[in-house]
Amino acid sequence: MNSPDVVMRGAGLHKRYRLGKDNFVNALRGANVEITAGEMVAIMGPSGSGKSTIMHIMGCLDRPDQGEIWLDGKRVDRLGGGELNRIRSREIGFIFQGFNLIPTLSALENISLAAEYAGASRREAMRKAAQALADVGLAGWAGHRPSELSGGQQQRVAIARALVNAPSMVLGDEPTGDLDTGTSREIMSMMRHINQDTGTTFVLVTHNPEVAAVCARIIYMRDGLVVEGDPGQAPGGSSAQG
Amino acid sequence: MRIIRNVFRRKLRASLTIFGITIGVFALVVMGAMAEKITLLVDGGTRYFSDKVTVSASSMHGFGAGPLSVNKLQELETIDDVALASADITMTLEKEQGASFGMPSLVIGSDLRGIERESFSVSFRDGRDLEAGDAGKAVVGSDLVRRMDAQVGNTITVRDREFEVVGIMEKTFTMPDNSIFIPFLDAQEIFYHDNLPEIVRTHIDMREITTGITLYPEEGVDPDELAERIKEMMPEYDIVGPARFEEQVTSATRIFTTIVFGVAIISLLVGGLSVINTMTMSVFERTREIGIRKSLGASHGRIIRQFLSESAVIGLIGGISGLLLGWLFIVVANSLGDASGTVVFLLTPRLAVGSVAFAFFLGILSGLYPSWRAARMNPVEALRYE
């Protein structure tokens, strides 16, 4: 069903959110998506097109109402919360727009926390975190709190955190959204290098064409559907719910 | 360390919450120390009364029965199973005893007839016990040493009469600590002149009076059974055996202990509610952090453990500081009380450990609901939270 080099496959994904009493938003209306191992993919589309929703579902933060999600050849959309926690901690890395570092923890502790959640001992987690921090060029900043770091540095800590458990896939939600152009380019180039050097799969949700330009493939979304860039299939607009 | 850092993220709020617990534990420690003191007092009494029967003028009959007479000693000793009878005079140290906090200090004079049979032993810090033939001598309980300015060889004034101190007792944590022992004949004299009204004095011989008689049963005789028997023979007197004594004091101390712990527990509950409040606020404020932790794959258990350990730390810090504050209070109050002979508090190890443990578990209990709320947050919504 899945070719061996497909990291993630979503088929016929539907997701509806309730905003008010009788007010629903159909965030996904049968979207299909497939990510190959080692790819660097951008997901683009206007606001409300379902980019973030599909990223949350791909990252096992949320479940689709309908459809299937396969990760490394395993169907994950019907797994229980505990199993999803385990998958998130070991198979997925997240990079967020607002960096999302924990303010009371140092750079090193923010990274080691992810390693601990993946099952490493405190000591082992610290060792892995120190290595990951060195890999993003911040070895000297281990003891600094997020508030003592620049935006670019914070995002590099977040990248180190996403990579510390050598996940199957790193998901980024507007990873350069809070950075200036220069820093943004620096961060993109760092991710591109990591992708090329280690073969880590990156999926980045973005508005920014410059970010998308660094990626090898761009998936476009509109109205809860993947409309372009998904290999091997036509958009499934007819299955939209309403 | 991470836990403490998180607790003190909001310094004022954390401190106020901890202060709430501190006050609760302080109340528990101070009031508990009072209850402990009384419990030991009662325990000592229970031990003292465990093998004897006491006879005293019945309070039911008012002064009508008058003081007992030492002439009763022979009569009582002829009763089957009574091995020995000993007379004593017990009166308050103050001639006019007003309302006082705790037990009044006592002056006790015994004819020492029971001294060989007495199983309640008291050791001496300094000097010796009273002996037959002593006159104008006194033995002082440990709580009264400072107040009376007593030292072996010193002269102290008891009810306006001078006595030479011959012994100072070790602390017993019960009644003798707050008593002065003098020879029986001296006690008779004081009681006769100070305590009896003129009209009674003219009808009574000073050397006959006594306020209580202690009966030591023969080996193997049940003192309660003996007390019952004597009660039937002499209904005009108050006859107390071990069971009666326990029954009398336990009901009184139980009420006291219940009130004392009730007040302390209520103040701790208030403290506990403020921990719930603080932790709920903290969970609310850290919604985004919880979302981050969940996105990193933190399990429900981990999130619950994190917040529970924070509330447990609040409880523990509050507990320890409450204990320290209570201990300080007790030391100061007891040393002030020592000067006036009223040592009211006793901080026992079980009370100290118990109060801190209670605060710790209260912290955990109060953290249960907030941490459960944190654990079941939806990660996507939590991450969106600004």
Characterize the structure shown.
- The complex is a heterodimer of chains A (242) and B (386).
- Chain A is of the alpha/beta class and 242 residues long.
- Chain A has seven helices and ten strands.
- In chain A, strands 6-7-8-3-9-10 form a six-stranded mixed β-sheet. Chain A has a four-stranded antiparallel β-sheet with strand order 2-1-4-5, covered by helices on one side.
- In chain A, a hairpin with a 5-residue loop joins strand 1 and strand 2.
- Chain A is globular, with a radius of gyration of 18 Å.
- Chain B is elongated, with a radius of gyration of 29 Å.
- In chain B, helix 10 runs antiparallel to helix 11.
- With 386 residues, chain B is of the alpha+beta class.
- In chain B, strand 7 and strand 8 form a beta hairpin.
- Chain B is built from twelve helices and twelve strands.
- Chain B has two domains: 174 residues, no CATH class; 191 residues, no CATH class.
- At the A-B interface, helix 2 and helix 3 of A face helix 1, helix 9 and helix 12 of B.
Summarize it.
Chain A is α/β, with parallel strands linked by helices.
Identify the notable features of this structure and list them briefly.
heterodimer, A: 242 residues, alpha/beta, four-stranded antiparallel beta sheet, globular, B: 386 residues, alpha+beta, 2 domains, ten-stranded mixed beta sheet, two-stranded antiparallel sheet, 12 strands
Strand arrangement in the largest pleated sheet of chain A? 6-7-8-3-9-10
Order of helices and strands of chain A: EEEHEEHEHHHEHEHEE
Q: Largest interface, counted with CB-CB under 8 A?
A: A-B, 27 and 20 residues
- The end-to-end distance of chain B, rounded to whole angstroms, is 27 Å
C-alpha geometry of chain A: globular
Rg of chain B, rounded, reads 29 Å
Low-confidence stretches of chain B: 61-65
Radius of gyration of chain A: 18 Å
Overall geometry of chain B comes to elongated
Percent of sequence in beta strands of chain A: 25-35%
Number of domains of chain B: 2
Residue-averaged pLDDT of chain B: 86
**Mean pLDDT score of chain A, rounded?**
89
Distinct helical segment count of chain B: 12
Weakly predicted, low-confidence segments of chain A: 232-242
